[in-house]
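Section 3.1: Structural characterization of target chains.
Under the original work plan, the team committed to producing a structural model for every single-chain target entering the pipeline before any wet-lab resources were allocated. The record below documents one such target. The sequence was received from the expression subgroup and is listed exactly as submitted; it comprises 272 residues.
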Amino acid sequence: MKNKVAFICDEMNHFLVRSMVSELREAGYSVDVYPININAYSFSSSDHGVFIVYMDGFSTDSEKLLASLDIVMGDKKKERRLYLIGSDEDLKKAYSHIELTLVTHAFKRPVNMESVLKELSIINPSYSYDGSLKIPGSITVNISRKSILIVDDDDVYLRNIETWFSDDYNVYTAASVTSALSLLKRVRTDLILLDYEMPLLSGLDFLRILRSEPATEKIPIIFLTAKDDKEIILEILKEGPTGYLLKSTAPILLKHNIKNFFDGKELWWKSE
């Protein structure tokens, strides 16, 4: 069940945990709470569609849990999503014990529940920007249109750019590298517009991950970022993206440039 949540944490009676669980239930989720020392293999036959791991410090139990979740989340017969919550240090350690592509999204403590509910609303590619829970069963895709995936941690910019492009393209959005990787397992995209500076994993990290996988290595990637520092631009262009554009570009010119890309014409910034 897509709305059935397994909430796994260190302190089941902690105030913040109780508060988060309460908000999830108010938003329409069925939530079961488990201690972090549970053996994740017990979830192999469960019908939980969402797993949230709340880490208040990285422990031996956290390590064992993630190692076993690696197998459970990798079961392709079941549609499951994994979310991690913890400090920068907790999350960094977590990624050494579970395959990155199995994590749908990671939140840094202290976490904003509105952000969690927004992220949970990504079922099939769709992004809810308002405060309400929006869980569509599916999304309509116009097969005659090109599809664009926009990856940026700035909610306002994501909302704006989706508005600019949605009249002409199928637009998918992701607020983090991990969310983008999760979306790419379910959708086909003709172009990725990618921010450079994001938490945990940068745009360059994302580019390198995609280029290392046969299924994604040929997806065109244009960096769309506020970074105009010469050294950063050169660092990005060394990795061979399709192009590099600035967020300061006027919307009408940005749309024209993306049209040029799909028409096979030259971009203003293009890697050799």
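The CA atoms of residues 25 and 31 lie 6 Å apart.
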